[in-house]
Amino acid sequence: MHIWKYPLFSPLNSPNRMKRILALLLLVSPLAQGQWHTTTLPGAPSIRGLDANGPTNIWLSGSAGSLFLSKDGGVSWENRCPPEYKHLDFRGVAVLSDSVVIAMSAGEGEKGKAVVIKSGDRGKTWRKVLQKSEKGTFFDGIKFKSPWTGFILGDPIDEYPYLLRTTDAGETWERVPNLPKIEPGEATFASSNSGITTLGDNIWFHTQNRVFHSFNSGDYWQAHNTLFQKGNSRGIFGLFAVDAYTLIAVGGDYLPHDEPVLQYAHSGSSGQAWYTAKEFWKIGLTECVASFGEQKHLLSVGTHGSAVSTDAGYSWKSLDKASFHVVRCFGSTCLAAGAEGKVGILKL
Question: Tens of pLDDT along 147-177?
Fold first, then answer.
């Protein structure tokens, strides 16, 4: 099985490989003693979105009108979704400030469900700022690179990726032009609101098997192939930018399967070239990555459990079997959420 692209430049073939592995083992030994402390949200919704600007302003979003706010680091939660939006599936949430938050409902557009709402008072009141009704419109994720500039990624409705941009804090949205054409059957999974990642003026988003990159806030784009296979239920499920050059892609297959599927791939060239390792082919699904502590320390979550990396994603070590869709860390404290309203807190 050929799984390396440009293998001569692989860090796993370098003399420093054993140093990185030793560093990982030294860190994971105490981490293995930590456990997720879990609670269940009222109504047991499926949570797909998580964003915050600190431990006193954490938001979760998900099915059945779930827009939960925590002011105490995830210990307690209050659903601040207004009654008129209780039927929506909020797959993404973006915190713009201590008081401003935007929530994105996935769709379908023709059923009036492709909706974005905004609150300026921490969810006490909401107003609709976007609704798309084109047939096939389905929002997959939302990400802001600043309090003013943000992006919404949706399933394609024509021959180009469906990407919207705002430059006025979500008040108005326009479709991003000059994108490379989409391939037949190409789309994005709305699994963990991590289909878009940003760092400075760099914007990345993914489909099942390709990564699209802009280095100038979305004016010019390039599309790069990855090592993931494209399928209706398999491929990339999340991206994470460690720095302007280091990009982590995670994925798998959300349907039951018996054969191992690629879970992790790493790029050191902003998404142009990718490599992985045999041990990163597993049964299950990895959906989201967050950084904790130092810049290169990463935590991933998915259906087969969570894992840690101390070398920016070159290598991973299994932590436990807890299943979550989405994760976010504040220093050494990580918060994750997933199916049936499960929310977990982990001290690393």
Answer: 999 999 999 999 999 999 999 999 999 999 9
Q: pTM value?
A: 0.88
Could you read off the pLDDT of 75-125 as tens digits, one per residue? 999 999 999 999 999 999 999 999 999 999 998 989 999 999 999 999 999
Q: How confident is the model at residue 34 (pLDDT cuts 50, 70, 90)?
A: low
How many angstroms from the chain centroid is the CA of residue 232? 18
Place of tokens 């290598």: 315
